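User: Could you check the structure of this?
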Amino acid sequence: MKNSRWLSLMILCTGFLLIVVDMTIVNVALPSIQKDLGFTQSGLAWVINAYLIAFGGLLLLAGRLGDLIGRKRVFLIGLGIFTAASVLCGLSFNQPMLIAARFIQGIGGAVSSAVILAMIVTLFPKPDEQAKAFGVFSFIASAGAAVGLLAGGLITQAVSWHWIFFVNLPIGVVTAVLSARFLAADRGIGIGKGADVLGAVLVTVALMLGVYTIVQSSDYGLGSRRTLGLGAMAIALLVGFVVRQAMARNPILPLRIFASRKISAANVVQALMSSAFLGFFFVASLDLQRVLGYGPMAIGLAFLPVAVVMGLFSIRFSAQLINRFGPFAVLVAGQVVIVAALAVLGFGPTYANYAIHLIVPLALLGLGGGLSFPSMTIIAMSDAQPSDAGLASGLLNTTGQVGGALGLAVLATLAGARTLSLLHDGAGTAAALAGGYHLAWLVGAGTVIVTLALTISLLRAGTATEMAVDLCEGEAVA
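Assistant: Sure, the predicted structure tokens are below.
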């Protein structure tokens, strides 16, 4: 029984690995896609944005569907959609086809990934095993990002960009077969318990519009009429959704879930942490390419310290530390390390030497992520009732994706404004670009300081104590 649970975890992580790799592998292939299909610079952004809009917009709905009709069923449906859409992406011969296929791929990614955390919680109810399981999950996430960067450059240079999508087909098919065979079936609580069609439409449209507004703000500006108008519409739809959930007999998002301070605060922390962490990778890629002159493969290799250290701590040490000190203490320690890493990078020189100025803070960033994200996941999922685990999983993923998209937009805008200001003052191009990127890293460090304050003020009470009690109860049962 124990071995079958860990086999199920490996299958779920393989499904998630497909999604994580796809998120990064496409970035490296964008120049080749642009050249082959004739995208303009603004049009090329839709190769990424189409995926993000569908992915971020459907996570919450997909998580709740897992609770209603069964998480295994939803996972398999999402995996099938994602794999089929990957083939369509690889076969694309013009811009509309690729953008449409990427949108469908985002739907599949959202549907499959939204229920994974809930399935892990169900598989590993004991806190000590749960910490190990989430450590493996975080390792897969960090390793997948590195694999995507390296594989994207290698496949694009050796064959063509089409094959970055085709490689998903055999992996997706094998994962689906193993999932159908080995994942435990669950029935769900029934579609009648949460078939709030109007609420589903409101939240999906609101999130899609919100993500669309965020990703397009880099072109139009955060303070433009377009951005503010669309943002106001998205907020109005979200308000309408909340009102609907308060009145509906079978809400898709029961507002009782926010009565838990842990769940509410952890999701805010997740959004802010994701904005700083994902924003760092975006800005750092630009700095390595435009200031330091790195190519696609070199950029992927440069990020390896983050992935290796984050993966090592996620899979080997984080669970031990969480079991020993509790998720709260480990989360705080991870946040402190991330602040230090971003601050070192932000105050670094324009022409940084990799061995002297970059490798240590990059390793520290991996250490901070390896400590923080498994701990935050445990805290966020610890108060969710079994019937709401899929909802809590989808909610945590949604706040991470939306927070990451917002962070990218804000940091890119701040970096661009700082660069223009430095150019106006007479700075050279490289110095001006580096000045903008370094400012973005310092803002990211400030954001993590805010999450540290929120963690200490809102998540401290009871977390470590409850973890210790749960561990003792688990040992007593054993």
